[in-house]
Automatic annotation (TrEMBL):
Annotated stretches, region: Disordered: 1-20
One Pfam family matching this protein: MFS_1
PROSITE patterns per record: MFS
Domain called Major facilitator superfamily (MFS) profile: residue spans: 61-478
Signal peptide: none
Topology of the protein relative to the lipid bilayer: Multi-pass membrane protein
SUPFAM superfamilies for the chain: MFS general substrate transporter (SSF103473)
The protein's name in its UniProt record: Phthalate transporter
Alphabetic keyword roster: Membrane, Transmembrane, Transmembrane helix, Transport
Gene Ontology molecular-function annotations: transmembrane transporter activity
Amino acid sequence: MQHASHIDSRGSQDIKYEHGDHLTGTLSPNSVESNVLAVHPDEGFDESEIKSIRRKIDWRLVPPLAALYAMSLIDRTNISLAAQAGMSRQLRLTIEDRYAHAVLAFFPPYIAFELLSNIGLRKVGARFWLPSAGVLWGISMLGMGFVNNHQGLIALRALVGLFEAALFPGATFLLGCWYLRRELAFRLTAFYQVGVFASGIAAILAYGFSLVRTGTIAGWRWIFIGEALITIALAVPGYFLIVDFPSSHRCTFLNEREKEIVATRLQRDRADAVPDSLTWGKLGKYVIDLKLWGYALCFGCTTLASYALSYFAPRIIASLGIATAVRDIYALVIPPYVAALPWGLLMAKISDKTGSRLPIIMFNACLALLGCGLFAFLPATKGAGRYVGLFICAAAANSNVPLISAASQSNIRRQSKRLYTSAIVVGFGGLGGIVSSLVFPERDAPLYRFGMIFVMGAQALVFVISGMMAIYFMAANRAAARGTRIIEDQPGYRYQV
């Protein structure tokens, strides 16, 4: 095997990995204390070789994770489509805000188990952990097709939340450990937006299932049954397709030379190619890192908008006066999510290319506020204009979700901190889901004006927090350039603003 010592003449040392991880050969620069700006991540490597490795990683990571996340979004939000297809009437969900309670039940276990799930993911490995989660929430979703009361629906929604807690933070953590900071936003956006796109066109799938009539099983039940079976069918191949962390002995799709290149580029970019355990001491330091709470608050406010659209879009569209049949309502759910895909990819591409994170997040927050405002304040007779507002809000909010996640992963070091950050940020996304279920009560239907105004306030808060963080990061970078500050305990490290 060819060693990496030819890459950098300043010397190297062997890297020791924990929890069964290993990487034969050497890394350069290898010291966690090395100056990350001293050498460009790609220096000494052939550009075509780097592109070939990156292409391998892209195809092995993004498509299987995106497929699982697509079903994750579909399974957590298909309750709104089932409600339109007759579930609300049969289970009497319009009484005492039972529908909102069923929506809300998903989130407490989803939030509570994210950090524990990430710890399990690091120890057990992504290749087993994430597909197993998909199989388990698929089985829980299957049970929702056979419930006969709202209590059973709420209990199974909670189980789906428990098992889905593994996927989004786990995938964010995994992707963050594979890519350079300047490569991450586009990959996270592709992973996320494919899921959003699929959840949008899933309205067609749900409508098709709702038309199925077999014995005493109503059409709305087939939405849960059919989509659960698809989830399980997509999760099983994940045991063979999803790859583990780059330092793991279970990661076999790259040869040793390619693994060395991946590790060396990561080390030069942010000096954290070496896995480290999450200890109580580190956890205490991470908890008091205010920038992580800033990202978490922005993420929660953004997911408030995206969840509100997911759970209440069919009812909102029904109020516009431009569609009355269930079929037409389902059809009108799709276009805003289709439009969100190219917009999100464009914003992510610009963000990675320029290294600009927070200004783009602020721009999207303004667009989301505008979109919500069009829906909330245009007269009820202006159904087309209010529908355009949904387009704008869906595109902007769903663009910001992966951008905020990528920004939070781009301004930290150490893999243990990535593990914690992905859990805490996505956990606040769950809080956004809880709030969305509370600020859209049944009594406000069909306009949901209070809920939309609340979402607008949340987007304004994203703008303010992001602006304050941008000012802080620029000041910290200037201090680091003067030599009066060391960022993230790493000489030469700079925040991406």
